[in-house]
């Protein structure tokens, strides 16, 4: 009963905040420890375990996942502000995203997830602000992970929403200067934030996925209903991203039906408890808009659960809809990667 009350309280908080651009439906309680985004602040010491949301107690997988959570706090300041690394609401709500998103990779990789100082949901210079302190923290955390935790294992990068925005910065900044690290990346699941053709052209050492088997590539999509008017999805920030179908792992616009999927991880509309259900969402790429179209979701029900991004914007369910397809694809790319670096390895 206590877990149900927690989930219900969390959803109430999540749905009470007006959302902008590529933010998740998550938001924390009133912040107690935040600074203006322009304020100079000291870096985070990632040698301290308390600055990590998840550190594995045992290393029992051949591959790691470095996961960046979406926005997990909010204040009411209309101007950009940044939470402290020990912000109570951030720490209270961040585990929700490990349970419902990062857990998709739990059977195939050791999970590492840092806390990072997050942007509030102010629309003022949002992308620029996220490229500041949140990105600085994530790069520092990843650098510490590579130097002290990774031990040469292949790794996956993954995130959602603000976390994926930060991942695009981490990829373009860190990997440019560390090509030897990029060679060990199985894939980057940059979900819930547009990865544009211009971004890829500016960073030619990064490649977008072309199919289910390629490695060292970026995977990205943003999910919406077919009746969302072009240009109105606030998640996209006016950007047109590359998109791959998370059921078929193809780039064309052929519809993938629910019969082709492996299952979804969805909240019960009444209890809010997440569980595996038969494939809930179909999937079709719309390359012109740079979105993934889902036609089978119950738009009325999902709008009641997550109304603040607008009707038919399924941002909150990017992972949930295709959860087991993501897990299987990560396992497949890992298998392909290990066979490249260790021929015959299973």
Tell me the helix content.
25-40%
The pLDDT mean sits at: 89
List the domain count as a whole number: 1
Largest sheet: 7 strands, mixed
What's the Cα radius of gyration?
19 Å
Tell me the overall shape: globular
- Low-pLDDT stretches: 1-31
Bin the strand percentage: 15-25%
Count of DSSP H/I helices: 11
Describe the structure.
There is one protein chain. The protein has 346 residues and is an alpha/beta fold. It has one domain. The strands form four sheets. The chain has a seven-stranded mixed sheet, with helices on both faces. A three-stranded mixed sheet has the order 10-14-13, with no helix packed on it. A two-stranded antiparallel ribbon has the order 1-4. Strand 11 and strand 12 form a beta hairpin. The longest helix has 19 residues. The N terminus is likely disordered.
Please sum up the structure shown.
With 346 residues, this protein is α/β, with parallel strands linked by helices.
Question: Which secondary structure elements does this structure contain, and how are they paired or packed?
Answer:
Elements: H1 2-15, E1 34-36, E2 52-54, E3 64-68, E4 81-83, H2 88-93, H3 95-100, E5 110-114, H4 126-130, H5 133-149, E6 155-160, H6 162-177, H7 179-182, E7 185-191, H8 197-202, E8 207-208, E9 217-219, E10 223-224, E11 264-267, E12 274-277, E13 284-286, E14 291-293, H9 299-305, H10 318-321, H11 323-341
Parallel strand pairs: 3-5, 3-6, 6-7, 7-9, 8-9, 10-14
Antiparallel strand pairs: 1-4, 2-5, 11-12, 13-14
Helix pairs in contact: 5-6
């Amino acid at each position: 009963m206590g877990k149900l009350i927690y989930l219900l309280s969390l959803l109430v908080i999540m749905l009470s905040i007006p959302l902008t651009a590529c933010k998740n439906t998550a938001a924390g309680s009133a912040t107690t420890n935040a600074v203006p985004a322009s304020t100079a602040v000291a870096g985070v010491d990632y040698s301290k375990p308390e600055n990590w949301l998840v550190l594995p107690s045992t290393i029992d997988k051949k591959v790691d996942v470095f996961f960046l959570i979406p926005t997990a706090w909010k204040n009411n300041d209309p101007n950009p502000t940044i939470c402290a690394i020990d912000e109570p609401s951030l720490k209270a709500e961040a585990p929700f995203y490990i349970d419902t998103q990062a857990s998709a990779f739990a059977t195939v990789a050791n999970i590492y997830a840092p806390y990072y100082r997050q942007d509030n949901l102010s629309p003022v210079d949002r992308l620029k602000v996220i490229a500041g302190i949140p990105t600085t923290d994530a790069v520092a955390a990843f650098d510490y992970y590579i130097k002290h935790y990774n031990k040469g294992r292949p790794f996956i990068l993954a995130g959602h929403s603000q976390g994926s925005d930060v991942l695009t910065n981490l990829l373009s900044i860190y990997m440019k200067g560390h090509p030897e690290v990029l060679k060990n990346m199985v894939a980057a699941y940059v979900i819930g934030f547009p990865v544009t053709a211009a971004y890829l052209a500016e960073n030619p050492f990064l490649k977008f996925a072309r199919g289910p088997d390629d490695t060292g590539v970026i995977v990205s999509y943003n999910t919406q209903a077919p009746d969302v008017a072009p240009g109105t999805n606030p998640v996209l920030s006016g950007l047109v991203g590359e998109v791959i179908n998370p059921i078929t792992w193809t780039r064309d616009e052929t519809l993938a039906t629910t019969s082709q999927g492996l299952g979804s991880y969805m909240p019960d509309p009444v209890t809010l408890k997440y569980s595996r259900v038969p494939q809930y969402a179909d999937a079709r790429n719309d390359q012109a808009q740079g979105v993934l179209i889902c036609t089978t979701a119950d738009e009325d029900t999902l709008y009641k659960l997550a109304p603040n991004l607008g009707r038919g914007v399924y941002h909150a369910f990017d992972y949930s809809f295709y959860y087991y397809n993501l897990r299987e694809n990560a396992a497949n790319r890992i298998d392909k990667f290990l066979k490249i670096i260790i021929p015959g390895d299973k």
